[in-house]
Specification:
Blueprint lengths: L2 E8 L1 H5 L3 H10 L3 E8 L3 H7 L9 H8 L4 E9 L1 H9 L12 H5 L8 E3 L3 H11 L8
Antiparallel strand pairs: 1-3, 1-4, 2-3
Length: 140
């Protein structure tokens, strides 16, 4: 399989808890190359836009509040089968269901405050990468 790229976020809970370094180490140990990385802070319109697919869900207002509460780290990650492998490295959305050794098992404190984000398909990966990064950023 050829190299693929995906989009990742270290969410505000993990940045505030100073877990970003350990999460980045887990990402590199899982075989990803960090193509691009920056710390930023989402505005409310940005958070609503990024999570627009969930706008009708009951958890949407809480999610937007959470994602805007503090700085996040956005990343472009590259490896073979990157989208699936990053989802696997993150673990299940609800940390109660996350497998041993995953980021969410280790750091997430609830189904909402779950430490990391990862794209779920090739189309969403490209849309999400473009939400934050330019072509030049993604040269690696
Ligand atoms: N979320 C939540 N309550 C839920 C489901 C999801 O607060 O019942 C939040 C959580 O932060 C999650 C994000 O909304 O990561 C996006 O949900 P999704 O189902 O896409 O999960 P993910 O793709 O992040 O595993
Ligand atoms: Mg999702």
């Amino acid at each position: 399989m050829s190299l693929e790229r995906t989009f990742a976020i270290v969410k505000p809970d993990a940045v505030a808890a100073r877990q970003a370094g350990e999460i980045l180490a887990m990402i590199e140990k899982a075989g990803f190359r960090i193509l691009s990385l920056r710390m930023t802070r989402l505005t409310e319109p940005q958070a609503k836009g990024f999570y627009a697919v969930h706008c009708e869900k009951p958890f949407f207002p809480g999610l937007v509040k959470f994602m805007t509460e503090g700085p996040i780290i956005v990343m472009a990650l590259e490896r073979e089968d990157a989208i699936r492998k990053w989802r696997e490295t993150m673990g299940a959305t609800n940390p109660a269901n996350a497998a041993e050794g995953t980021i969410r098992k280790r750091f997430a404190t609830s189904i909402e405050r779950n430490s990391v984000h990862g794209s779920d398909a090739p189309e969403t990966a490209e849309t999400e990468l473009r939400f934050f990064f330019s072509t030049a950023d993604l040269l690696g």
